[in-house]
């Protein structure tokens, strides 16, 4: 049996996690579980944007710099 990690989705039911697929492990096999909630895209954006909630000028400066860097990487259109 390999020691490589498998990523699977599951649903929490009290203290149990029901995985969506077949684990391909024998009954009684001990496993290590890392629990990470699945976020909707909206929640992920809300959580990541919250880090700048007290620095709106920092967000603006970041966006200006990202646009500047993106424009540097784009080739001039051929005519």
Average residue-wise pLDDT:
83
Query: Can you count the beta strands?
Result: 2
Stretches where pLDDT falls below 50 for ≥5 residues? none
Order of helices and strands: EEHH
Cα Rg: 22 Å
What is the helix fraction of residues, given as a range? 25-40%
Total DSSP helices: 2
By oligomeric state, this entry counts as: single chain
Please describe what this structure looks like.
This protein is of the alpha+beta class. It has a domain at 36-74. Helix content is 34%, strand content 10%. The chain contains 2 helices and 2 strands. It has helices at residues 41-49, 56-73, and strands at 10-13, 16-19. It has a two-stranded antiparallel ribbon with strand order 1-2. The longest helix is centred in the last third of the chain and has 18 residues, at 56-73. It is elongated. The chain starts with 9 loop residues before the first strand and ends in a 6-residue tail after the last helix.
For this entry, give a set of tags:
alpha+beta, 2 strands
């Amino acid at each position: 049996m390999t020691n490589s990690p498998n990523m699977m989705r599951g649903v929490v039911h009290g203290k149990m996690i029901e995985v969506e697929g077949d684990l391909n492990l024998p009954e009684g096999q001990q496993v290590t579980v890392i629990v990470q909630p699945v976020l909707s895209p909206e929640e992920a954006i809300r959580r990541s944007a919250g880090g700048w909630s007290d620095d709106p000028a920092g967000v603006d400066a970041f966006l200006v710099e990202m646009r500047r860097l993106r424009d540097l990487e784009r080739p001039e259109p051929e005519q």
